[in-house]
Each structure stands twice: as structure tokens, then as C-alpha cells.
Amino acid sequence: MELQPRVLLWELVLLQSSAVLLSSGPSGSSTAGSSVVSESEVTWAAGARAVLRCQSPRMVWTQDRLHDRQRVVHWDISGRRSGGPARRLVDMYSAGEQRVYEPRDRGRLLLPPSAFQEGNFSLLIRAVEETDAGLYTCNLHHHYCHLYESLAIRLEVTDNPRAAGAHWDGEKEVLVAERGAPALLTCVNRAHVWTDRHLEEAQQVVHWDRQPPGVPHDRADRLLDLYASGERRAYGPPFLRDRVAVEADAFARGDFSLRIDPLEPADEGTYSCHLHHHYCGLHERRVFHLKVTEPAPEPPPRDPPGNNGSSHSSAPAPDPTLARGRSVINVIVPEGRAHFFQQLGYVLATLLLFILLLITVVLATRQRRRGGYEYSDKKSWKSKGKDVNVAEFAVVAGDQAFYRSEDIQLDYKNNILKERAGLAHSSPPAKSVDLDKDFRKEYCK
Ligand SMILES: *[C@@H]1O[C@H](CO)[C@@H](O)[C@H](O)[C@H]1NC(C)=O
Ligand SMILES: *[C@@H]1O[C@H](CO)[C@@H](O)[C@H](O)[C@H]1NC(C)=O
């Protein structure tokens, strides 16, 4: 029974390692805070100049040289009974200047002076007149953030005090005001972009990321960082770093398109353009699944004469495998580890189950042998042999199931254990290829 302590030790070791590995298994698939606004498949030939388009006018850097004149509210009126185009009634900059356009409205139309501090842009009409009826719009412009919001209210004037009130017509508020009474057209927007002064000059950042094939988004490689201040940083694998670029005037035009020139087969992967304007609350991601095809002019010279059928299937082979070979190196070692360990954990757990079954059989056999020695040799060895054989078959699916001597059996089991243990240690490299393929299937759907 000196085997038992050793086996128990093995069990413990295996149990522990598989527990640790399993617990580290499900990797946190945390997603970035930005929303995906577009996702597209793009294909370019190797050697070409690839351009991944990423543009947003809201990312144009409008430096606020005037300091805090970048927000404005204005109230307009249209749809009056007298007809005529929309007319501006009153406007106000975030700096606090209020302008009333018609002389007759001065002192009659009021905006709260603290509108941009409190987010209350409501218009007060001191004493409603018949001509005030119409469609009013409260318009908020944020020049710095390229934001525009508008709210419509219809004002109706009545002589009947009991008809006064407000209701919703399905699209907008309808306010019925009594002639001569004050009317408050409510327009409240407390979102911080309308109420805060912005202090930092540039909170605009653009990133380009790249995921080699099969790598999830949270493990993407950063390729480029661009700041509105003009600062730039390039990362990414050396083989790619020198071939990617974004135009120097990107922030002036809001065009952050990535050029890859010249394109190589190994550049395949998923590219993401992240636009962040922290102050304006802009967080957008554009995703490109880049495929690289054979370069156009190459195929003709590669066809060897005569060998038509097989050459077709073998000719395109070198490039994809080259690309895959590179990407496997990029993928597995630094990034696929958690997933790989998870799989390894399953393998080990299965192994453990096998070993436990094996031990149970060994112990059961030994016990029975010891207990049944009185009447052993002559009578029961046939039936016992059968027993053992059945068990062995079940567990080992054995080609070597017909051992009868106990010594040989023990040796044999030792060997199996050793083999299993050896397998557990040697399997990872062989296994990793399959796992990688599995993953790729999963992520490249
Ligand atoms: C907005 O300001 C007006 C005064 O101009 C006031 O009567 C009204 O209650 C305010 N609304 C809110 C929601 O603060
Ligand atoms: C390809 O080879 C086969 C015989 O190997 C021949 O019958 C066939 O005509 C060939 N096709 C072309 C396009 O050369």
C-alpha cells in the first residue's frame, strides 16, 4: 500500500492546480465605455494603400479663443396668424449678454440671467398679447461641442380664464394663456455641457486599436494615440508601426482615417477608431474588419505550365499561412493565456476524474484479493479474472487488459499514471493550436 500516499499527493496537486486554473478561467470581458457607431468589412489587396475612414465633425477642435461664448440660447417664433418667416425674439450667450430683437419686446420678454448656470432657459412673457400666439422654439447651440437642441412650444391666447392651462398635443406642449396674464414657456436642460464652464482646453483624444485575428476587443493592441494638442504616440507591433499614419491636420478637419501603406497580409485583423471628447460626452467607436487579398498582378507568373488543378489550390497557400503563423505568435503567448488556461483546466479536471476511477478500481481489486485469499487460487481465479477484466475494459478501454499477476497490474497502472501525468505536462503546446482555432472560430463569426 505504499502507492496510496503517492497517489493521494498527485490527486491533491492536480485538484489544486485545476481549481486554480478554473477559477482564473472566465476572463473579464469588459467593454470600453464607447458605443460602436459603425462596423464594416473592408478588403484590400496586399501592397495597396489601405484607408480606414474615421471622420466626425464633432471632433473638430474649435479652440475657444473667446472664452465662454461658445454656448448660446435663442427663442424663435413662427406660425403666427399674421404669417411670415420665423423670427428671432431673444438670444443670450453663456457669458450673459441678453439681446431682445424687437423694441416692443424689451422688458416684456425675459430670460433668466442665470440661465447657463441653472440650465433654465425658460422664456417669460410678462403680459400676453393677441399677437404673441404662435409656435415658439427654444434653441440651444453648443459651438464647442457641435451640439444643437431644440424644443417647441405652441402658445395660444384666450380671453376665457377657465380655458387657460397647458397640455401635450403628442409632439409638443401647448400653452393656453389668458390675455394680459404672464406666460412662462418652459425650457429646462440641466445636462452638464449646457451648464458647466469648460476649464480644460483639450479633452479630445483619438485612439486606433488593432486586434489580430481571434483576439477579443478588450485585448486589442493600441496602435496610435492622437491628442488635440498635437501630441501623438505610436505603439503597435514593429512590423506595422512604420506603415500606419493619420493626417497631420486630423483635428482641424475631424478626419482621423488610418492609412496603411503598403498593406501586408499579416496586417489582417480588426481595427477600431475611438473618438473621445470627454467634455462634450462624445465616445464613439468605429470598427473595421480588414481582410487582405492576394496582390492583383501576381497570380499569372506563379502558374506553372501543365499542372493546372493542383497548382490552383497550392498557390495561394503560402501567404495565409505566413500571416497566420505570425498572428499565432502574437496571439497566444501574450494574450490568449486566460482562455488557454481555462481549457487546460477542463482537460486536467477530466484527467483527474479518470485517475480517481482508476484508483477506486485498484483499491477495490486489492481489497477483494486480500479478503478472498482463503479460497483464492483454485476456485475463484477465473471469475475474478473476469471481474478485473471488465473493470479494466471500462476504465482503460484496454488493449492490454489480460494481465493476471498483481505485480504486473501495479506496474501497468503506475505506467498509466505516469503517462497521464506526462500527457498533462506535454499536452499544452500541441493543444494550443486547436484552442486557438476554436477561439478564432468563435470570434471571427
Ligand atoms: C425657471 O425660471 C423661471 C423664472 O424665469 C421660474 O419661474 C421657473 O420656476 C424656473 N423653472 C425651473 C424648473 O427652475
Ligand atoms: C487540367 O488538366 C487536366 C488533366 O490533368 C486536363 O484534362 C484539363 O483540360 C486541364 N485544364 C486546363 C484548364 O488546362
TrEMBL record:
Keyword Cell cycle: no
Stretches that traverse the bilayer: 344-364
Localisation: Cell membrane
Main location: membrane
Any one GO cellular component localisation term in the record: cell surface
GO biological process terms held by the UniProt record: cell adhesion; cell differentiation
InterPro entries named among the record's database cross-references: Ig-like_dom (IPR007110), Ig-like_dom_sf (IPR036179), Ig-like_fold (IPR013783), Ig_sub (IPR003599), Ig_V-set (IPR013106), MXRA8 (IPR042472)
Keywords recorded for this protein, A-Z: Cell adhesion, Cell membrane, Disulfide bond, Glycoprotein, Immunoglobulin domain, Membrane, Repeat, Signal, Transmembrane, Transmembrane helix
Domain Ig-like: start-end pairs: 26-158, 161-293
Pfam families: V-set
Signal peptide as annotated in the record: 1-23
UniProt xrefs under SUPFAM superfamilies: Immunoglobulin
This protein's record includes keyword Transit peptide: no
Topological relation to the membrane, as annotated: Single-pass type I membrane protein
Ranges for region Disordered: 293-322
Record protein name field: Matrix remodeling-associated protein 8
Species name: Pteropus vampyrus
Gene from which the chain derives: MXRA8
